Prior knowledge:
By secondary structure, the protein is mainly alpha-helical.
Amino acid sequence: MDVCYEELSKEFDEDRGGFGSAPKFPMPGYIEFLLEYAEAKGSSDRLETLIGKTLDAMMMGGIYDHIGGGFHRYSVDTYWHVPHFEKMLYDQGQLTNIYAGAFKLFGKMDYLQIAQSIVGYVEDQLTANEGGFYSAEDADSPLEEDPSTSREGAFYVWKSSELLHHLGQESFDLFKLAYGVQSEGNVRRESDPHGELEGSNVLFQTANFEMISANRGLGPPEVGQRLEHCLQTLKITRDKRPRPHLDDKVLASWNGLMISGACRLYQSSGDRTSLALAATAGTFVWDRMFEPSSSTLFRTYRESVGETEGFAEDYACLS
């Protein structure tokens, strides 16, 4: 464990959090190890930096969907700003796990709220009527003005003029300060080499409530309430856009990761919504994807169970 810890410490991005350089993946397995290391060896300032700076950077960055919850697959840059917009179930499960674990270790309410928002996203968009979890939402989606054409990130990005129109001037002024909105768009050229996001804004949290409070002369609770209202307004608007394509197959292993993440959220906080979601999905896998007479787990389900028997990872993730 000590050798692994030292290697991760060397790989850590001291400036922006995370491990390695662009493209930057969440690497939840790294954080999971560091949480276990902290429990085994005791926490330290260095461990809190490795874990906390990474989790803070991801939840403030554009890799996190500030409006609808859940995380995109990875950041194309080192800043956690511009993501590859695909949303994968396996990320949601593992990130719920580590944010819930970090909340239990550090007691930071932001981590609990992020874990709950991931579960909320999965419940809203990736849960089948029967209870299993779908696999992913694509990065591309049809353009609102031309549904025959699809573009990466179309569902998620905003023109400054759109935000002003939907929020009104006073709320827009507060929102652009909090989420890095620029009139010409906030995407760096190196993060968008093909120019698909030119003039658009990928929301990322550039200032916390205390900083905005000092800048605007408002109390932090009022800042939080106003920004939350802005996000809810934008969600209503965004939900009218054509959604990305849904990959509606159910994979045993990825369902296991999401069930585990939801259970850890319950264990860390007593969140019964996450427990109920996990129990329903677990029942689905047991009833539809497992053959008790031969003790055989099947790997996939879409309208009916697939023929492929489970791999080692399916058994491992559901054990």
